[in-house]
Amino acid sequence: MTLRCALLVCIGLLAGSTPARATPFDVDLALVLAVDVSYSMEADEQHLQRQGYVNAFLQPALVAAIRSGPIGRIAVTYVEWGGSAAQVLPWTLIDGTGSARQFSEALQRQPMRRISFTSISNALAFSRKLFLLSRFRGVRRVIDISGDGPNNSGVPAPVARNSTVAQGIVIDGLPILLPRRDAESIPDLDAYYENCVIGGDGAFLLKISDTRAFAQAILAKLIVEILGPNVARLQRSETAARPVAAQTGYNCFVGEEMQERRIGQ
Asked: Tens digit of pLDDT for each residue in 128-138?
């Protein structure tokens, strides 16, 4: 079964559900979109990444996934990060085509930024605080973090991952493996994300290895996240976009070691 077919089947099965009774601030999912804008990302790649999210929230399939939940709405915030992090869009309730389009248009209007260094750990810590500050109560809480390189600033990524998962927050990954003209990335970034970054019930990753795949990958990943961990497991077992197997003894300090060598040169 292809990813597209799996998603269409799940949306079809759930589309007829009736939203459950809930307070105005209860949502099926509270989702932090944590997007890498470090200097290792080329300007055209940053534009493709931003447009991928802008376009995703205009798609009927994404809205159908949102409406299929027991409550029928989600809350989303958009964060950009490098060595530090910034909340680009505040927590926003999305419950249909209109609110999804407003979120997309608001994101489209935001200026592009670039931030030096790559601190996955800081991005996770920043995102955890956003859940505490949010007025929305998510049945599930997920951080969707993209990146094109390993952690090279702040505490090690596994420390931040463990602290995040301990709070009941799921971390999904979107590792970006594109040809580089510099030495900021590593060839097995998907394995790094699998072993050192993602975690929690139903956590998964979807790698991007072609600039033409940005929009499709972002939309597919968002739909899987919205539909929930059961669909994430389906993706892991039945599609080519499943995570690599965890490796015993994987070096989660590779980014810090690379940074030390650069400083020592």
From this structure: 999 999 999 99
Q: Which domains occur in the chain, in start order?
A: 26-231 (3.40.50.410)
Helix 214-227 crosses helix 229-238 at what angle (to 10 degrees)?
130
* 200, 208 Cβ separation under 8 angstroms: no
Angle between helices 214-227 and 60-67 (to 10 degrees): 10
Question: What tens digit of pLDDT does each residue of 220-232 get?
Answer: 999 999 998 655 4
Map residue 90 onto helix, strand or coil. Answer: strand
The widest CA-to-CA distance across the chain, in whole angstroms, is 61
Q: Which residue has the tokens 């899987």?
A: 224
Tokens for 147, please give them.
Answer: 């990146």
Query: Which residue, 118, 168, 179, 171, is CA-closest to 145?
Result: 171
Q: Which residues pair with 208 in a beta bridge?
A: 176
Q: For the residues of 116-183, what is the DSSP string, one character each?
A: SS--HHHHHHHHHHHHHH-S-EEEEEEEEEEESS---SSS-HHHHHHHHHTTT-EEEEEEB----SSS
Q: pTM for the complete prediction? A: 0.86
Residue 246 reports pLDDT greater than 60: no
